[in-house]
Amino acid sequence: MKGHDELRSPRAVILRAVVLAVFGVIVLRLAYIQLVDDRYGSMARDNFLRYEVQYPPRGEVFDRNGEYLVQSRECYDLMVIYRDLPKEGFDTLRLCDVTGISERKLERALADARMRPRVGSPVFKFLSSEEKLRLDEMNVSGFYTVPRTVRRYPRNIGGNLLGSVGEVSREMLRNYPEYSVGDYIGTEGLEAAYDDELRGENGYVLRDIYSRDGSRDTVLKRSVPGKSVVCTIDARLQQFAEELMRDKVGAVVAIEPSTGEILVMASSPTFDPEELVGRNRGNNYMRELNNSRHPLFNRAVKSSYPPGSTFKLVNALIGLQEGVLTTRNVYPCNEGYDYGRIHVGCHKHASPLGFYYAISTSCNAYFCYVFRNILENDEYGSVKDAYDVWRDYVMSFGFGRKLGSDFLGERSGYVPTREFYDKRYRRSWNSLTVLSLAIGQGELGCTPLQMANLAAIVANRGYYYIPHIVRSVEGCDSLDGRFRERHYTMVDTKYFEPVVEGMWRSVNVDGTSRLAYLKDFDVCGKTGTAQNPRGEDHSTFVSFAPRENPRIAIAVYVEHGGFGSEIATPIASLIEEMYLTGRIERQWLLDYVKNKRINYPMYDRK
Known about the structure:
Elements: H1 2-7, H2 10-35, H3 39-46, E1 49-54, E2 61-62, E3 68-80, H4 92-99, H5 103-114, E4 121-127, H6 129-138, E5 143-152, H7 159-162, E6 165-167, H8 170-175, E7 184-186, H9 189-193, H10 195-199, E8 203-208, E9 218-221, E10 229-231, H11 235-244, E11 250-256, E12 261-268, H12 281-289, H13 299-302, H14 312-322, E13 336-339, E14 342-345, H15 355-360, H16 364-375, H17 383-396, H18 418-424, H19 448-459, E15 463-464, E16 470-473, E17 487-488, H20 496-508, E18 524-530, E19 538-545, E20 552-558, H21 568-581, H22 587-595, H23 601-604
Parallel strand pairs: 2-10
Antiparallel strand pairs: 1-8, 2-3, 3-4, 3-5, 6-7, 8-9, 10-16, 11-12, 11-20, 13-14, 15-17, 18-19, 19-20
Helix pairs in contact: 11-21, 14-16
């Protein structure tokens, strides 16, 4: 009885309760570990399995003739699992020599890997195939490579046009959950505009580190290669345009009028896209970023320039449509337009002069009369009401707004509003106050893309297709429908033919565009000299050819280039010659353009 009493004693009961409680905790813990907590299972798997991202090859880019503009080449990311590094250490100097990584960077990478010893951490990117083979020969445990592709550019052209590819930033990772650490995206140009199509989809693999042939690997998701893109650009013509614009500041844009396809988009100065690929990308990017001539800035779509005398085409068309101008109108020009204290200068030419000669010789005075007649039209209640109508006409030509191209970063330019002048002049202004708009000066601003679109509009006699740089995407049935829609101006088609005649005479008879003459091609053109208060005037030119069934419309803008006929016209003409004939016969003109030197004090001063 005594033993039975001891078992029922408070001390024994407490002891049994403690033993049962401990046993219960152990059972519950085992159940939790086996049924709920997979941490230890993951740790066990980590001993022989590695979760690995499979990066897809980025889609390639072709020009309109099937030539590569952008290709992908194989490279590797060097990774490390800190836990698997040799306990006795390894030859760090040899590893650095084989991979090209600095000792300091290797030490920093290993320090980061130590924080997550069981997970693969990046050490170095852009290992070549040769470097990978030498690394494999070293056979250092803990290090492994992940294949991926980087860009290469067969012609090394179109830096601003094509853009570049870079690793996603921390900010993008926060804002866009579809991206992961290590992903690469297009950062500018076509690479950014069509990143969704070019990028592809990552794949994922559980890799057995003991399986040499990969036979025990588990594919969780296969990577999907990016789609190839066929560009509208003519690679040969693009390269030629960039050669002509070398050492100059400005832009060239050429469009196929019948489709809106962009044949050339050259911004100068530009950069070699190969320099923004690989290990030195960061250093090269900073060098270009600090370049005083801003080669990373795409002037073709982002610069807002005064159009100068090329804008007289627009005012001529508005005047004809409004009935305040006919081809029979004659006005005087005594080296400019004078009204009271106002003087708008002009170069020497015959006076008085008619409509066609005014266009061909680019007379400032003639278009001052035209512009005043537009704004002082009795059909409207006031000059300000007429100005609103004039601005609507201008906007219908694609000025003062984005054209809606598939190219990112397009600027809208600027066409001042009535309210702008009300504020500037305290509501006291008239046609003389804004007379500089008659010759494309004043507050007007437009991009070279808009100027090329103007040339396409005149070539088409009143309409345009939205300019675009991509013709097709792999796997897509057709182009975006908005690029197939005609956009008409507010000017009737019948009024374009007189303007075309004036442009034709400017090149072929008696005008300022004589350097654009091409035998058998009936080139039409209009020079422009945009006034520049900070140095030499800007040289500009718009043109299309042939006159009937035009195949190319082009705009050239050269900052500080002087008269439009001085440098912009020969550049445009050589590009037209190359495109229409496939060769250059006017070697003297080519030599003149290549040897032309222009001073840029605004960019080059210390």
